[in-house]
Amino acid sequence: MKIKFTLNQEVIEHEVAPNKTLVNMLREDFDLTGAKEGCGGGECGSCTILFNGKPVTSCLMLGVQADGQEITTIEGLSQGNELDELQKTFISTGALQCGYCTPGMILTAKGLLSENPDPTREEIKTALSGNLCRCTGYKRIIEAVEQAAKHYR
């Protein structure tokens, strides 16, 4: 099927198989490997992207659903060589270790802070609850989101 959508601020026309998942379309057709298919069931958050500014698990969506929509992946979050504030705070606070979950965590936090630039610690925990991390224990991740929120405010 032919679709037209905005991917990381660039208008794209693309032909995609009707049964191809969005995460696989992004990874295989556009070489955007930040979103990863961890569980394939929307439980781990490693495939999270921003879909019209809202965090979604792209393993549960079909590529054809991108038609007419705006998608942002972790690769499109920075502006040129300038990292987004969330990317900077994840680095400065040590909120990442292996990095597998990091893109999903950052994009989920970006969606939260876009709607609520002054979240409580509980609101941050709730927003991130669909993103699993096996390395950091979440403390530094929450601190990174809190620090980025101060910058956005």
Can you describe what's shown?
- The protein has helices at residues 22-30, 85-92, 102-115, 121-128, 139-152, and strands at residues 2-7, 10-15, 48-51, 54-57, 70-72.
- The chain is of the alpha+beta class and 153 residues long.
- It folds into two domains: 2-73, Ubiquitin-like (UB roll) (Roll), CATH 3.10.20.30; 85-152, Orthogonal Bundle (DNA polymerase, domain 1).
- Strands 2-1-5-3-4 form a five-stranded mixed sheet, covered by helices on one side.
- Helix 3 runs parallel beside helix 5.
- It starts with a strand and ends with a helix.
Name of the top-level CATH class of the largest domain: Alpha Beta
What is the number of strand segments?
A: 5
* Helix-residue proportion: 25-40%
Structural class: alpha+beta
Mean pLDDT: 96
Low-confidence stretches: none
Cα Rg: 15 Å
| N-to-C series of helices and strands | EEHEEEHHHH
Architecture per CATH nomenclature, i.e. the level-2 architecture of the largest domain: Roll
Strand order of the largest sheet: 2-1-5-3-4
Q: Indicate how many domains the architecture comprises.
A: 2
Number of helices: 5
Instruction: Kindly estimate the percentage of residues that lie in beta strands according to DSSP.
Output: 15-25%
CATH superfamily of the largest domain: Beta-grasp domain
CATH topology of the largest domain: Ubiquitin-like (UB roll)
Pathway: Alkaloid degradation; nicotine degradation
Keywords: 2Fe-2S, Iron, Iron-sulfur, Metal-binding, Oxidoreductase
Organism: Isachenkonia alkalipeptolytica
Protein name: (2Fe-2S)-binding protein
